[in-house]
Design goal:
The chain is built from four helices and nine strands; from the N terminus they run βαββαββββββαα. It is of the alpha+beta class and 158 residues long. The protein has helices at 11-16, 57-71, 119-137, 147-156, and strands at residues 6-9, 39-43, 48-54, 77-82, 85-90, 95-97, 102-105, 107-108, 113-114. It is globular. The two termini are 18 Å apart. Strands 1, 2, 3, 4, 5, 6 and 7 form a seven-stranded antiparallel sheet that branches. A hairpin with a 4-residue loop joins strand 8 (107-108) and strand 9 (113-114). Helices cover 32% and strands 25% of the residues.
Length: 158
């Protein structure tokens, strides 16, 4: 597992934590399996923190504007480029994952090159995720995902 890279999460994670406000896997359709959402990976002691990314940047830019009007500063969303395309990093939907639930790494060029982001954006997102985790530990809930329940359940299986 490489921090700063992108991964997909197994369906069994979504099944186990179905009531935790996770961004669910996209169902397969006539085009096949989508493997979305894709997650940016940040590791702390014990767990991988997965930040979903979205191509719906206009939607999330509007949401960020609304949140910033209300709160002045909002750390739940960041924007950056992945594979040359602008993406929304949904820190508000970050979730802890143990290695057993990670399906595969997001690769391009016929599955030969791992998708990554530049080090500046990676450092920014990592810092915000650390901050959000610390705030959550102090009882300040910024994240939509029920990370307390997920962590409690993951700790039972360690």
């Amino acid at each position: 597992m490489n921090k700063g890279s992108f991964y997909f999460i197994k369906d069994k994670y979504y099944e186990r934590f179905s009531d935790c406000n996770l961004m669910g896997n996209k169902n397969a359709d006539e085009k096949g399996v989508h493997g979305r959402p894709c997650f940016y990976c940040f590791k702390t002691e014990g767990y991988y923190w997965m930040v979903p990314i979205s191509s719906k940047t206009e939607k999330y830019e509007e949401l960020k504007k609304k949140k910033e009007k209300r709160y002045k500063k909002y750390d739940g969303l960041r924007f950056g480029y992945v594979n040359g395309e602008k993406r929304a990093f949904l820190i508000q939907n970050v979730c802890p994952v143990s290695e057993e639930y990670i399906d595969c790494q997001y690769m391009i060029e016929n599955n030969t090159i791992p998708v990554t982001i530049n080090s500046k954006l990676s450092a920014e997102i990592n810092g915000i995720v650390r901050k959000v985790i610390r705030l959550n530990e102090r009882g300040i809930k910024i994240v939509l995902t029920n990370i307390d329940y997920i962590l409690n359940e993951l700790n039972k299986t360690v």
